Amino acid sequence: MCEGGPVDRDWEDRVAAAWASLDDYPEERAHEFRAVIDALVAELPAGSPLGPFEQACAWDSTGHSDKAVPLYREALARGLDGHRVRRARIQLASSLRNTGRAAEGVALLTPELDAPSDELDDAVRATLALCLSGLGRDREGLSLVLGALAPHLPRYQRSMAAYARALAEPPTAPEA
To answer: For the chain, which has fewer Cβ within 10 Å, the N-terminal or C-terminal residue?
Structure first.
């Protein structure tokens, strides 16, 4: 059993293999990649949240955020669970930004800052930073990116973390 519904390891392995082959499909053959994903989705039980999730990812990864948004929403509404929920939120927020709805992306990802930490924390912050930038809130976005980067630096971790916090504070007016 995997996250989001009862499928077997063979199905998961075939999905992983399909995704590993994505770069083999140039833009003019993107429809062929989506057909591979659609064939795998057709094997799922009716109502599985994995179907719309995988299809959303396929549309998104082939440059069609507009088609991905409703599928991400459907996957979440059907009860997508586990690790894929956070992935779906990150990817949905990115697609929302790409379709001119950055504010919805900010609203979707802001609660993720307080979610239990995992390997997607930096992706949450990077995507949220892009959404904030799309709204003209570049200082907040830069603060998130620097805060995410700081722990990975071999040196200057304290100073970069401090700069990130300072950027999150409202700018002070110049003294007269």
So the answer is: C
Residue 126, pLDDT > 80, answer yes
Residue 106 lies in a domain: no
- What pLDDT score does 176 carry? 62
172 within some domain: no
40 C-beta neighbours (distance < 10 Å), count:
21
CATH number at residue 72: 1.25.40
* Model confidence at 175: pLDDT above 80: no
78-109: b (≥16 Cβ within 10 Å) or e: bebeeebbbbbbbbbbbbbbbbebbebbbebb
| DSSP tally for the chain: helices H, then strands E | 9, 0
Question: Chain centroid to CA 100: how far?
Answer: 16
Residue 23 domain-assigned? yes
Tell whether 65 is covered by a domain: yes
So what's the pLDDT on residue 60?
A: 97
Which structural domain, as residue segments, surrounds residue 6?
1-81
Q: Is the pLDDT of residue 3 over 90?
A: no
∠ CA 52-84-59, rounded to 5°: 40
| Structure token digits, residue 173 | 């007016």
Q: Quote the number of domains for the chain.
A: 1
